[in-house]
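ESCALATION

Customer reports they have been waiting on this structure for their group meeting. Please prioritize. Original submission:
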Amino acid sequence: MKKFSVKALVSIGMLSSISYVLMLLNFPVPPFPNFLMVDFSDIPALIAALIFGPAAGVLVELFKNIMDYFMTGSATGVPVGHIANFVAGILFVLPAYYIYTKLKTSKGMTLALVIATVVMSIVMSVLNYYVIMPAYTLFLNMPAMAAPELKTMIVTGILPFNIFKGLLISLVFMLLFSRMSTWISRQQYKSESI
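Update from on-call: job pushed to the front of the queue and completed.
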């Protein structure tokens, strides 16, 4: 694993804190179920990945979810939602990072974010069907949903929500990226030379 400099570790800590605050500023979107909340906490993780590499993005996702779990807790007592958020964040950040490193243009970043949204949405739908929703019903002592009901909920609720959330995060990130791309490139160069 790559060793981080003190500057990188401090930056990852700061970006994790910003990510945690953004996670607290979540909000529901009316057509989707109330338990699905939009937040912009993946943006600092993506910035960390672009500057310091993919491990930094994963660390920001991890630290933000650990902080949120200890500060706000979980309805299940077990961090099922936090684990789901962590996995969704990784499924968004890593594809975007790897595709962008191959293309290195604004159009390349746009394409990377769209592909990352699709990857995250599809994989999270599968994980929700087989792992996450069954874990929620198990830990909340609720009756399990029948397969057709669960499939309908994922196809009509979770999948479109993840696509919407990914595209919304992509839009906000592209607005920031258009202003910050030169600075991010300079920071990448500095972190690579350390």
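Sent to customer with the following note: Strands lie at 27-28, 37-38.
Escalation resolved.
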